[in-house]
Model the fold of this input.
Amino acid sequence: MKYAILLSGGMDSVALTYMYKKKLSVAFTVDYGQKSSEKELEVSKKICEKLNIPHEILHIDCSSLGSGEMCNDKISPVSPVPEWWPYRNQLLITLTSMKAISYDIDSLIFGAVKTDNSYIDGTKKFFNIINKLLSIQEGNINVITPAINLTTAELIKKSKIPESLLFWAHSCHISNEPCGVCNGCVKYSEVIEEINKT
Done:
């Protein structure tokens, strides 16, 4: 079984990368036109270098297709949260799987957690459907979400990732430097506070 991970540089994917470091054949990071791409690529590269994991960066500018905070555009009327980008998880899984075939990857790990269910493409139902879709096509890639039943704090504890690596994670949705006010920055602060309590 050959595993790859979609590594965004955020807390969830960084923790999963650490947890699966011995099984990973490659980590993929996608620059799809998001405002924080520069920092996400920097963090992902550092994590892969530290863990000795091959790292592949995909540059595909989809900024003209986005909406909301992540592409500095107006928020769509159907957006469930300010950072929502239409069909983003579907896009990232599709683009990454297209490249994963050249690595003979069997399973693509995606860093979805329990609290991602505020939008449809973060739910178990979505991942079950897209996994079926990919697995019936040439390549037979499976999408797996090992943390779908965990909160981010629970995932971090389970992964046993050292703080020195975790603190590299970049969660800001709107900037290459933490803005401190977007949902990603707020989540980061809340998770750090929660894990420091225990």
